[in-house]
Amino acid sequence: MFRKIYFVTGNDYKFQIAKKAFAGSGITLVQKRLDTPEIQSDDLKEVASFSVKWASNLLKQPVFLSDAGCYIEALNGFPGPFIKYVNSCLTAKDLLKLMAGKKNRKVVFKDCLAYCEPGKKPTIFLSSIKGRLSTKPGKSGQTSINEIFIPNGFNQPASEIPKDQMILFWKNNNRNYKRLIQFLKK
Length: 186
Fold this sequence. Notes:
The protein is of the alpha/beta class. The protein has one domain: Maf protein.
């Protein structure tokens, strides 16, 4: 069984969620800030697989990473796995302009957790979390998507929900961490 594993992410929020999920597992989680190459593909699994294999071979360590996609039904799944790019280019208001005149506000967040050991094939875990888009942006200071995404069970955008509450929400609703821990303990 692994005693220590590297989580490749520069996102402290993601790392906090993972730390909560790994608490009590007997596995020490270490954050490794590393810019991984992201291939241009609309397949979230393909993007995550390439990045985790690259990181594992570079670090010569078992690693995992998490890639997310935001799939807005009314926009035919846009932005999909290109969420990081969209967050850097479009504001929450820009995204809401794309929704003008659209009644369907359903959104599915897909999380792809990819694990890999050096020289081996990646193992992939997928989960989905549903929600809807708000009609106006929430508090700014987070990502554009978080300013308009209302997770199921809430009545306000993620950016308006206290951080501790959102960390627990993602930990409890993202089954990928539990799956990875079980996989590592085999």
